[in-house]
Write a structure and sequence with these properties.
The complex is a heterodimer of chains A (357) and B (385).
Chain A (H helix, E strand, L loop, with lengths): L15 E9 L3 E4 H8 L10 E4 L6 H16 L7 E7 L10 H9 L6 E5 L5 H14 L5 E9 L14 E10 L5 E13 L2 E2 L8 E2 L5 H20 L8 E4 L5 H10 L3 H5 L4 H4 L6 H10 L7 E5 L4 E11 L3 H4 L6 H6 L2 E2 L2 H7 L6
Parallel strand pairs in A: 2-14, 4-5, 4-6, 11-12
Antiparallel strand pairs in A: 1-7, 1-8, 2-3, 6-7, 8-13, 9-10, 12-13
Helix pairs in contact in A: 2-3, 5-6
Chain B lengths: L3 E8 L10 H16 L6 E5 L3 H5 L4 H8 L6 E5 L5 H14 L6 E7 L6 H8 L15 H16 L7 H11 L13 H6 L2 E3 L2 E2 L9 E9 H7 L4 E10 L14 H14 L8 E3 L5 H10 L8 H6 L16 H4 L4 H17 L12 E8 L4 E9 L2
Parallel strand pairs in B: 2-3, 2-4, 9-10
Antiparallel strand pairs in B: 1-7, 1-8, 4-7, 5-6, 8-11, 10-11
The chains are: A alpha/beta (357), B alpha/beta (385).
Chain lengths: 357, 385
């Protein structure tokens, strides 16, 4: 803060950026019509077309490693030992006690001289980790830091969220601006105590406040973070080639974008919810990776996450000359979305262990 | 007994007031009503409310609201009669002024329903039914009304779509009411496609879960002229009751409590139901609107729906109902609803109902129902010449 009244954006003294990114989405897809068939006799609309489902041998650890390896591949000849933080944001860490991040750090060769930790802030745990990584690198304490948002989201069978709660996410390797494919221009967060969605210890499925999750939760925080950032940077919606807003379904991000003054073309590339569902902590970050797969040098990108409980991080990026060559080094986000195996509700119930033997 | 008049009315917008507490909602309505009446003090305050204990962990609303409204010290308590709480509180205010025990009385109905999750609110609402024989068996309120609607359709040969005019009329009127929760029209086609809630009740057959508060200020009628430019006389205040459980009723498709309540009110006012210019009825569900029209004497048994189908429930119709949106479109903050109905009748009789004004309205009937018909509170209001 520069003075006592006006919060300023988060921006480190040293310019930093994304030097490698990677997405991961499991191959299985459950059509929303399958959920409707089982629970409503097919009546009523569905919030998306279909969602991704993790296979029997997949969890946040394996998926994070996939995304991290893609990020490292794009970064090029980065020595993994120089990655001084491996941070995984998720609400479906396989262990209640035992970090996901140590397993990921070990798998990519970042151990032993690294920070490792798991982040929890509902669907914005990934961008929370990303902002910490920006600070870590921006302060000079680390040359590289890895932030991941990844989930295998759980929803109570028959609940409205079962249509959308899905699996996937993305990893961002943060490093010095001179090595970056996209440079951070600044970020801005908006956080309040708003209980719209939660899960207590020992509960298997989360609870949510129904319509309360909309206006006073998602829309309020998304708008405040986005407007605060754009005001501080002096930017307008028209300045951004692409924007991605947390996508719990297909409708919310489109409504938020429209209210903020973004055109449908600006959010089209990052809007994946209709095809893969809500990947929770991965949701806004995987929209970003889909955007980075197609952007041109000089493009500006706005990302706004939302995590229940509640808060939003708005992050502004400017794409560099490095992106066209760098993005070819790993599978594109769209490659994962196209790698599609449709399953029925029974198989989904088995894969997600909803049937107990 | 003294004649009693309404000298001021106030209301909050009905909706999802997530950022406003129960006491603030009540305060807003009380302040508006007292400002409208031009009074700064009162002898008593009666609060109509059903669910504050269950949904807000707060009982003892009389003293709470009186204190918060700057009326600390006066007589104050809460009146509870399920969804009929608002009109029951008005009834207590009427009794106090008519009996000469108080001169200026404030009545406020207030409900805050959106702070809990849907299943909690549904369970709380079921407390209006017979706990042992209905609620404990899993019958929610919408389920009980669905049984009644199904039976009505079976007995009289109606289909579901025949109920559409109630929703269409309520939404058309709600569109013009700045205090209504739903300010958009719906069509019969949209009614046909609405999501099923509890077969045969769909989303557009149902009033919404919502928050709101409405208030009136009462005074002796002979003093009212000096206090108010447009006092409205309470020509009748009456209550009828019935068994809580539908299966204990003489005939499940006859609201005997409403028959009694309406008859008593009309006798007191010295009129026939057909003499009133509008009827604010308890359309919590379409089936309740049909049964109310019949019990109040506007239609024969099984013919309440016919009135709606023949276009007689609109502003220009023979029996205008839900003139400001009714429970369906204005909203149904349960313990506040009875006071909203009376506030809206006052607006009509004052000629201040805007685009929804019933031409030359002189007498209005407001009927508030607790449960599926066990408590029915009726008020007849008339313009003072």
């Amino acid at each position: 803060m520069t003075n006592n009244d006006q919060p300023t954006i988060l921006k480190p003294d040293r310019d930093v950026g994304i030097i490698g990114y990677g997405a991961y989405v499991p191959r299985y897809r459950l059509p929303a019509s399958e959920v409707a068939r089982v629970w409503t006799g097919g009546q009523g609309g569905t919030p998306i077309k279909e969602k991704s489902v993790p296979g029997l041998d997949e969890d946040v650890v394996t998926m994070s490693i996939e995304a991290a390896r893609n990020a490292l591949a794009r970064a090029g000849d980065v020595d993994p030992a120089l990655i001084r933080a491996v941070w995984v944001g998720s609400e479906s860490h396989p262990y209640a006690v035992k970090p996901t991040s140590t397993i990921v750090a070990e798998a990519i060769g970042a151990t032993p001289h690294t920070q490792a930790g798991d982040w929890e802030f509902a669907c914005k745990a990934g961008t929370e980790a990303l902002q910490a990584a920006i600070g870590f690198v921006g302060s000079g304490m680390a040359r590289y830091a890895l932030a991941i948002g990844m989930d295998t989201a759980q929803a109570r069978p028959g609940d409205a969220l079962e249509y959308t709660a899905s699996a996937g996410g993305a990893a961002c390797l943060v490093g010095p601006a001179e090595e970056a494919l996209a440079v951070f221009e600044g970020s801005f967060s908006y956080v309040t105590d708003t209980p719209d969605f939660w899960r207590r210890a020992y509960q298997h499925y989360p609870s949510h406040g129904g319509r309360f999750t909309g206006q006073p939760a998602y829309f309020k925080h998304i708008a405040a973070a986005a407007q605060g950032l754009m005001q501080a940077l002096g930017t307008e919606p028209a300045d951004y080639t692409h924007a991605v807003f947390h996508q719990p379904n297909a409708k919310f991000p489109q409504t938020a974008a429209k209210r903020l003054g973004f055109a449908p073309e600006q959010i089209k590339t990052g809007l994946l919810a209709d095809e893969i569902g809500n990947t929770y902590a991965g949701s806004s970050l995987i929209g970003l990776t889909a955007i980075l797969d197609v952007v041109a040098p000089g493009d500006r990108v706005l990302l706004v996450s939302y995590g229940s409980g509640a808060g939003s991080d708005a992050i502004s990026l400017r794409v560099t000359e490095a992106v066209p060559e760098r993005r070819r080094r790993a599978p594109m986000t769209r490659d994962y979305i196209a790698r599609r195996v449709e399953i029925d509700y029974a198989t989904y119930a088995r894969f997600t262990r909803k049937l107990r033997k | 007994m003294r004649d009693v008049a309404i000298i001021g009315v106030g209301q909050t917008k009905v909706g999802e007031h997530w950022a406003t507490s129960l006491r603030h909602l009540a305060l807003e309505a009380v302040q508006a009503a007292m400002a409208d009446a031009g009074v700064t003090r009162a002898d008593a305050l009666y609060v109509g409310n059903m669910l504050s204990g269950e949904l807000a962990g707060q009982e003892h609303l009389g003293a709470l609201v009186a204190d918060f409204a700057g009326l600390r010290g006066i007589e104050a308590f809460k009146v509870e009669a399920a969804c009929g709480s608002g009109a029951a509180a008005l009834r207590m205010g009427y009794v106090a002024v008519a009996g000469g025990l108080a001169d200026i009385v404030v009545v406020v109905g207030v409900e805050k329903m959106t702070d809990m999750l849907g299943p909690d609110t549904t369970a709380a609402l079921a407390m209006a039914a017979d706990g042992d024989y209905e609620a404990a068996q899993g019958a929610s309120f919408v389920a009980i009304n669905a049984l009644l609607m199904r039976r009505y359709m079976h007995e009289y040969g109606y289909n579901h779509q025949d109920f559409a005019p109630f929703a269409v009329n309520a939404h058309r009127n709600g569109t013009n009411n700045p205090h209504a929760m739903f300010r958009f029209p719906v069509t019969a086609e949209r009614f046909a496609r609405a999501k099923m809630i509890c077969d045969p009740i769909n989303l557009l057959d149902s009033s919404p879960i919502c928050d709101g508060a409405a208030a009136v200020v009462l005074a002796p009628a002979d003093a009212a002229r000096a206090l108010s430019a447009a006092p409205i006389r309470i020509a009748a205040s009456a209550v009828g009751t019935d068994a809580l459980a539908v299966h204990d009723r003489r005939d499940p498709l006859v609201l005997d409590g409403a028959v009694l309540s309406t008859r008593r009110a009309c006798e007191q006012a010295g009129i026939e139901p057909q003499d009133v210019d509008l009827f604010e009825l308890h359309d919590a569900f379409g089936i309740m609107a049909a049964l109310s029209l019949e019990a109040a004497g506007f239609a024969d048994k099984g013919q309440g729906l016919r009135l709606a189908l023949e276009g007689e429930i609109g502003i220009e119709g023979r029996v205008p109902i839900a003139t400001m949106g009714g429970l369906k479109a204005r909203g149904h903050p349960v313990g506040a609803t009875g006071v909203y109905q009376v506030v809206e009748v006052v607006q009509q009789l004052r000629g201040l109902a805007g685009a929804n004004q019933v031409p030359n309205a002189r007498t209005g009937l407001a009927q508030n129902i607790g449960g599926s018909g066990a408590t029915v509170v009726t008020h007849i209001l008339e313009r003072m010449e």
